[in-house]
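Hi all, long-time lurker, first post. I run a small reading group and we've been trying to get comfortable going from sequence to structure in the token notation. Rather than ask abstract questions, I figured I'd post a concrete chain and ask someone more experienced to write out its structure so we can walk through it together at our next meeting. Sequence below, copied exactly:
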Amino acid sequence: MAAGAALPALAAAPARAAGAARPNVLLIVTDDQPKHTEWATPKTVAWLADQGVRFTNGHVTTPLCAPSRSSVFSGRFAHNHGVRNNSASHALDQHTTLQRYLK
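-- Answer (accepted) --
Happy to help. Here is the structure in token form:
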């Protein structure tokens, strides 16, 4: 009986150790910023990119603020998450976002 009670505790220890080694993710999304305007923030961009990964070919399917952010948060296209313009941000189901799943 004691071995059966200790087994769940032993199984949880490696999970906690593995969780501490997981990387943090920071995604910075700017609005209305064409690629050629990066000259305005070279030190900030270099500081962030030197500490992680830089994606140089990012594209959006719906180039409006609320629909684009909702797609990032939900992993779905605008016609699937319901936020089709900037005044419909309330349409995003907050229970199905990446932040919710990551807790």
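A couple of things your group might point at:
The mean pLDDT is 78.
DSSP finds five helices and no strands in the chain.
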